[in-house]
UniProtKB/TrEMBL annotation:
It holds the Pfam family Glyco_transf_5. Keywords: Amyloplast, Chloroplast, Glycosyltransferase, Plastid, Starch biosynthesis, Transferase, Transit peptide. The keyword Glycosyltransferase applies. GO terms for molecular function: alpha-1,4-glucan glucosyltransferase (ADP-glucose donor) activity; alpha-1,4-glucan glucosyltransferase (UDP-glucose donor) activity. This is starch synthase. It comes from Triticum aestivum. Its EC number is 2.4.1.21. It is found in: Plastid, Amyloplast; Plastid, Chloroplast.
Length: 481
């Protein structure tokens, strides 16, 4: 739950270790929440804004929705649309200020379960730069003034590439004491001094987390820290990585609702061979590809941007298309890369499908019906698709970076260990080498291939292990100084 909510602030009550509250903007008229508590007013960029709190109790979690017209009707552009400086100032920044101010006071204002949590045993978990103002406001408004002195904050870094950068003049909109400018002022050798919200949050938080061990290491390097590596290294004492888990209710081949129709089939570890064969045939039929059980199906599922490396697949396509394989690409994003998907399908229509857009149903069906998942991401803090793939007995071929390095153990044919193939540099020829070894194993070493599938499916990829480690960090944030 911690990592699925956009712009979320989460806190837990450590007396019981079971009170979890997720705080999110109210983007639309949802059915479950109902208004609760008293409205509050906050100053945002000199404007007085009223917040109404709404509450829903779902799957053991108290969801608190922050309601104000500034959040309405932006579901498709929650990250800011055109990203111009004026748009950033007047839209994204205002939304994040209001969310963080209201979230800090939610424990006092929202009587979840009939009572307010108060501040005695709270640990706030803020996610990415969008909520990185929360640790700053907690310190500046409250702890510096003798209030909420026992509350703590943990900031989780999901993607350091997006930092909430803006001109220094934006500081005036944050409604903070002037001495706090030092937290936000950051020097970029290519762009000079600027306001950096992520930098301030990293400095102010009591603990820092990121979503894999590999990404934690990369964030400390000039290449991986995107200009914030110095600050992160200074905060190393409070920083660690915890690999994400996945929702094994939604993503489970035994009960996946998207596999119950149209010729697909649910399957388990015991029935993986016949189940995947049936899903593969159904996928080929659905997308108009030749229905062939012997041909390996390679899938790519992801955003179409520079990070995900779909351009490397395009560069390698002449070789890939010559290997008697079928390739299915699903994604949306940059216009030129969407056009690339259409072009690849047009050039190799007998074996390539490029689905521009996103379909949850098709993503599930591709994961079940494909033999191989290709993830050539240039950087990947954790990655979920490779975890979904292994859960479904689909073998990943990934760039050995961030969480992909942590979760996909490279296959060793001599000892019959490993979960897939990795390649060290984000280059088409390196990807081709790894994919070539994968295809050779698929075609010529059937028992080894079945071993790869089964080892992937036998892993515990749920949130259980990660949740225990999160709890350890929350306790450390609360009691270890």
């Amino acid at each position: 739950m911690l990592n699925r909510l956009p712009f979320s602030c989460t806190f837990g009550n450590l007396f019981t270790c079971i009170h979890l509250q997720a705080i999110v903007p109210m983007y639309g008229n949802y059915e479950e929440p109902h208004q609760i508590g008293e409205p509050k007013r906050y100053q945002v960029a000199g404007q007085d804004m009223e917040v109404k709190y709404h509450h829903a109790y779902i799957d053991g979690v108290d969801f608190v929705f922050i309601d104000n017209p500034i959040f309405h009707n932006v579901e498709s552009e929650i990250y800011g649309g055109d990203r111009t400086a004026n748009f950033f100032l007047q839209d994204i920044l205002k939304r994040m200020i209001l969310l963080c101010k209201a979230a800090v006071e939610a424990p006092w204002c929202v009587p979840c379960g009939g009572f307010c949590y108060g501040d005695g045993n709270l640990v706030f978990i803020a996610n990415d730069w969008h909520t990185a103002l929360l640790p700053v406001y907690l310190k500046a408004y409250y702890r510096d003034n003798g209030f909420m002195i026992y509350a703590r904050s943990v900031l989780v870094i999901h993607n350091i590439a997006h930092q909430g950068r803006g001109p220094l003049d934006d500081f005036s909109y944050l409604d903070l004491p002037s001495n706090y400018m030092d937290l936000f002022k950051h020097h970029d050798p290519f762009g000079g001094d600027h306001l950096n919200i992520f930098a301030a949050g990293i400095k102010a938080a009591d603990r820092l987390l990121t979503v894999s061990h590999g990404y934690a290491w990369e964030l400390k390097t000039p290449e991986g820290g995107w200009g914030l590596h110095g600050i992160i290294n200074e905060s190393d004492w409070k920083f660690q990585g915890i690999v994400n888990g996945i929702d094994t209710t939604d993503w489970n081949p035994r009960r996946d609702v998207h596999l119950k129709l149209d010729g697909y089939s649910n399957y388990s570890l015991e029935t993986v061979e016949t189940g995947k064969a049936q899903c593969k045939a159904a996928l080929q039929k659905e997308l108009g590809l030749p229905v062939r059980g012997d041909v390996p199906v390679i899938a790519f599922i992801g955003r179409l941007d520079n990070q995900k490396g779909v351009d490397l697949i395009a560069e390698a396509m002449p070789w890939i298309a010559g290997q008697d394989v079928q390739v299915i690409l699903l994604g949306t994003g940059r216009q030129d890369l969407e056009d690339t998907l259409r072009r690849l399908e047009s050039q190799h229509y007998d074996r390539v499908r490029g689905w521009v857009g996103f379909s949850v149903r098709l993503a599930h069906r591709m994961t079940a019906g494909a033999d191989i998942l290709l993830m050539p991401s240039r950087f990947e803090p954790c990655g979920l698709n490779q975890l979904y793939a292994m859960m479904y007995g689909t073998v990943p071929v990934v760039h050995a970076v961030g969480g992909l390095r942590d979760t996909v153990q490279h296959y060793n044919p001599y000892e019959e260990v490993g979960l897939g193939w990795t390649f060290e540099n984000a280059e088409a020829n390196r990807m081709i080498d790894a994919l070539g070894h994968c295809l050779n194993t698929y075609r010529n070493y059937k028992s080894s291939w079945e071993g790869l599938r089964r080892r992937g499916m036998m892993q515990d990829l749920s949130w259980d292990t990660a949740a225990k480690r999160y709890e350890e960090v929350l306790v450390a944030a609360k009691y270890q100084w």
